[in-house]
Each structure stands twice: as C-alpha cells, then as structure tokens.
Amino acid sequence: xxxxxxxxxxxxxxxxxxxxxxxxxxxxxxxxxxxxxxxxxxxxxxxxxxxxxxxxxxxxxxxxxxxxxxxxxxxxxxxxxxxxxxxxxxxxxxxxxxxxxxxxxxxxxxxxxxxxxxxxxxxxxxxxxxxxxxxxxxxxxxxxxxxxxxxxxxxxxxxxxxxxxxxxxxxxxxxxxxxxxxxxxxxxxxxxxxxxxxxxxxxxxxxxxxxxxxxxxxxxxxxxxxxxxxxxxxxxxxxxxxxxxxxxxxxxxxxxxxxxxxxxxxxxxxxxxxxxxxxxxxxxxxxxxxxxxxxxxxxxxxxxxxxxxxxxxxxxxxxxxxxxxxxxxxxxxxxxxxxxxxxxxx
Length: 346
Description:
The protein is of the alpha/beta class. The protein folds into 2 domains: 6-199, NAD(P)-binding Rossmann-like Domain (Rossmann fold, 3-Layer(aba) Sandwich), CATH 3.40.50; 206-343, N-(1-d-carboxylethyl)-l-norvaline Dehydrogenase, domain 2 (Orthogonal Bundle), CATH 1.10.1040.10. The chain has 14 helices and 17 strands. The strands form 4 sheets. It has an 8-stranded mixed sheet. Strands 4-3-13-12 form a 4-stranded mixed sheet. It is globular. One of its GO terms (molecular function) is 2-dehydropantoate 2-reductase activity. It comes from Actinomycetospora corticicola.
C-alpha cells in the first residue's frame, strides 16, 4: 500500500463519525459505514460536528453494506463499532472484495487491507486478528458524544484527541507498517488528531481500560458526583488485577504526559449540557439494548478469574450495567447509596 486514499469507518457511531467528519473537513477521503436513522441523516445532510470552537456540517459519503463501498487496495478499514458488534461487522466486511487500481479483484478485505481497531477495552484486537491479517491497535483519547442522528459532539479543542497506534500481532514487514502509520499521522494531524505510533500500544490500552472502569458508574448513576469512592474502588481493583496478571500497563505519569499535550483541552460545547457521559452512558441514553461493560469492567473480572483473584467491584458493575441495558433503564436508575450496597462497599 502506498499513501491511503480513503478511510472506511466500520460502525460510524460517535468516534467513527467524529473522525470521519474531521478528516472530510480537511479534504481527506472517507466512507462512514452506519445504519438506521443516523446513516440516513448523514447521507442526506452530512455529519454535524459540534465542538467547543466550531459547529459545522460536513458532507460525507455513507454506506450501509459492502456492495455500496467498492473497496480498493488503497483503503484502510477503521473499526469503530462497539466491541459487542465487532465480530459481526468484521465478518460482513472482511469478506468484501477488494480491487486494484485497474478495477481487478485481488482478494478479500480481511486478507488485503489493514484494520485499525479503535475500540475501548483490549478484546477488539483479538476479535480482529481471528479474521484479518494486518491488525493495528488504536488507543483513542478523544471524548465524543452521539445522541442525535447525524450530530456528534467533540469536546477537545483546539486539538481533538490523541491516538496511540501500533501493530498487533506479528509483523512480516515492519517497514511497511511504519510507512502506513506515518501516512496516517500525516492525514489525521491537520484535523486536530494527534497520532503517536508506538510498540507499546497495548500498554496504553490497558491504562485506558483502568480509566474506563468508571464508564459503568456514569451509565448507572448519571451524575457520579459523590460517588468518587466507588470510582476509586473500581480503578484500584483493576490496577491490582492487571498488575497481578503481569499485563503491560503504561505508567500513570507517562499516561498523564501522553494524554495532556499542549493544545488539547476538554471543554464545554455551546448549547450542550455540561454533564455528558462516555460510551456506556450514551448506550443507555439511546436505549440501544446493549452496553460494552462486559469488555471494560468485565475484562477486569475475566482477568481476575484467570489468575484466581477476586474482583467483586468490577464483576458487580458488569452485571448491573448489563441488566440496565437489557431492561432499557436510563442513567440515574440507581443511587450511589444503592450502588454501594449492591457492590458490598458499605
């Protein structure tokens, strides 16, 4: 692959729509793969970016299925679906035909194209590697919110976010991988997306996983004010479990420096409430019926069970968040005191 000509965002929810819109705004070629009303609105009117320093609607191509995409050897697939949907999305798109520059079919997407896994948690890379040859992990530090079809809130300004990228699994051609990552940085950074290639990408994702154990609290409580002790307990438990399992975790000071570059602040967006939650909170707000807590708090519980350690706080949060999604509950369905009792923290 030479320089990528197009970024195909598979499962363009909040982060995929935000990245696609920001790149399209800078003249990069993108394709947003979405479904339902969100896909229809973006196809008709474009994607509206709502940032602290701008509001702009950007025209973007949209597809709902592989036969609408005409994939080529110059495409890069960016997996931005939620982890529970990742396998189905990759199964559908991995079998899509890819064409060379003369229009001749040269193979399947999973065999030919690079796949960037821009998901929370650390399970998406294994899901992708079961299906694709060339997989790259992406640690996303870019708060985005999708509540209304066709509109995405991006809270970073003037930079939009930081993205640590690196190859996942064996690389038969490190030089080609380095070239691809350099090209991505060249394309993304004018859009305010700071790209940092690293061989320690999974260490960054494990560090973010610890932070993301708080996502379930946002989803359940709505407002986590006064529940700092629960957040601290979940994160401390995660830190202990990952350390006991001897998994790579970027240090706190290194993470703080990496996620606080000059020019990146997370600010209020005009016309939007100050209290906006993360991906799990958004899932309950939109009533999707599913939530990714199994791959966040549940990842900590899974790791603990593998090594014979208890993780009652994260296991409990996983079960409560899953039930809330299944029953269609909204953020704020439980109080902090009720949550403490449920988790045995009183």
